[in-house]
Amino acid sequence: MSRFRILRVDHSDPVRIGKKNRMLFAIYGIIPTLFILSFNSMTFGGSGYGIRFLISIPLLGLIYYLLLRKMRSTTDNLKTIGELEITQSCLKKRIGDSLSEYSFQMIKELSLIKHIPSTRIRESKNGYFSYILKISFYNRPEETIVVSDRSVDHDHKISIADTVKTLKKLVPFDVITDL
Asked: How many CB atoms lie within 10 A of CB 74?
């Protein structure tokens, strides 16, 4: 069906990195409301419209620039270490020279969780740059992989979320999507 990049997160807990970035993204969205409130509250100090505008706009631009730079540095620091290929009969994980193949009969549950929001339109189809894919096996320990949203093949048109939704219809095990 599709192949996706496996990403390396330079942190012991990739879930924590995702939560931190989603919080920064929420702050990024709340800033315009805070800007309007602070702009209107300056009228009590007796300052003129021009002075308020000259103070507020550069400050708002600086805050937006610093937040966007921080969020993009997280996505830029993710390195590709391999590929995950999802076929109609198995999952193939290729990291370096190692190739692991998991047939669908070995898998008990597959879950897809949002990880890092995208900051550019071309990075994502569903609004997230990367997802965490958890694979639970019957006879092995659980495996957690951070995968990119866009496929390597198909000219980056297929997202991991669409592939997992399609996979949900085909496989005998539980597929959980937190989208």
From this structure: 21
Q: Reading across the β-sheet that carries 79-86, which strands appear in turn?
A: 98-103, 90-95, 79-86, 2-8, 143-151, 128-137, 107-117, 174-178
Number of domains the chain contains: 2
| Residue 63 and residue 34 in contact, taking contact as beta carbons nearer than 8 Å | no
pTM metric for this prediction: 0.78
pLDDT digits (tens, 9 = 90+) for 126-154: 677 888 899 999 888 999 898 988 888 86
Contact 74, 116 (CB under 8 A): yes
Amino acid code (one letter) for 24: L
Query: What CATH number does residue 115 fall under?
Result: 2.30.29.30
State how beta strands 128-137 and 143-151 pair: antiparallel
The backbone region for 76, taken as left when phi is positive above 0, alpha when psi lies in -120 to 50, beta otherwise, is alpha
Q: Which two tokens stand for residue 158?
A: 């297929």
* 31-82 residue pLDDT tens: 888 777 777 776 666 667 777 777 778 888 888 888 888 888 888 888 889 9
Q: In this model, does residue 177 exceed pLDDT 90?
A: no
Which of 56, 76, 96 represents a domain boundary (last residue)?
Answer: 76
Same-domain status, 45 and 106: no
